[in-house]
Predict the 3D structure of the following.
Amino acid sequence: MVTNEFLTKIFLCQLALLLPYFLLLGSANFGFRRFWLLFSVPFSMLIVGLEHVIPMATTEEMEYVVWLNPVEIGSEISHSLSFDFVQIYFIGLTVFSLIFLLRLARLFLEIRKALEVKPESQNLFVLPEAKGSFTFFGRIFLSLEDVSDEMVIQHENEHRKQRHSADLIIYEIYACLFWFNPLIWIGRVELKKVHEYLVDQQMCNQFSVADYKQRLLEKALYDGNNVFLKNTFNSNQLKNRFKMMNTKKNFIGRIKVFSVLFIAGFTMMSFTLNQNSLSIWENNLESFTEIAGQKEKVYDAPEKMAEFIGGMDGLMKYLQSNMVYPSSAKEKGIQGKVHVSFVVSSKGKVKDVKILRGVESSLDNEAMRVVSAMPSWTPAENEGKKVACRMVLPINFKLQD
């Protein structure tokens, strides 16, 4: 379910991954720049998803701690919800999706008017009313004046071979899904530039650089660079393109690439490893707890585990009857699983209640409140003696439509 928290994490992760891209500006690593623009967005979604999958701690002791069955705390979504960002997000998603579909339909109507140059022309088509030539997936659409221009045809053929139209479709989908992120829109423009740089590299290997630059200057008189979903021969960024033609891959460029990869790795670690949870977990691994001013050893795997009076069914009834879904979380559509760590002392008392992994402050506080107020348990036993035992209880707060 999409929540404010999920959208915020996606936004922050995309910022962390896309901002380093600008370190690459001025470098000739066009293939890597294309890759980064395309895959940083799904990579951000993967990272946020992994945050909920990767284990909360890497210590070996974790596998010996008693994990109770998860308890679900449900609540119906209030029909008087405040107008929060989730609602705004879906409105924006709908609007931008409709715009995308309308523009796509208009493009298909346009290319239906195309005339095939000749059967053996390798998907060359003529658009009599077009001001410039462009490529759309496997087809090249030429204006009347470009039909016999070998340089233009070869330029568009490079776009076709490198499948740049697929990139543009993918980024349009990104723009619909993440319309609230300005870097997505900047990346959309940047991707078209990178496409031109990649084609320029190939063209300079096949034609005279001077002749190719001259042809670009001539074609720049025609508008076509910003046409929806089209890789075109025309460009208003000639100064940068000419500069990129003279830029070679060098050691500095490699350092920039490694810097971006390092930042990406650091971002992944930051998002997937909850440092707060890990530090709390380390505190929970203390071997002793205090009972009446005296230290008592805490067992992670005693011979007989502590048990709530009434068993697991009794524990679930207690939690479901005492837990109240926080109204603030309900209004914001926040839900998730809170992992609570606690110690059952040798007297059966619940002590050292801590959040092992939280979701949001109101949910975390409610889980701690109810667990801290639990009645006495039947204590654990080890070698015939009653001992303190560490427990972990997952509490799943879930909203129901």
DSSP finds 13 helices and 15 strands in the chain. The longest strand covers residues 385-400. Confidence is low (pLDDT under 50) at residues 53-68, 76-83, 275-286. The two ends are 11 Å apart (CA to CA).
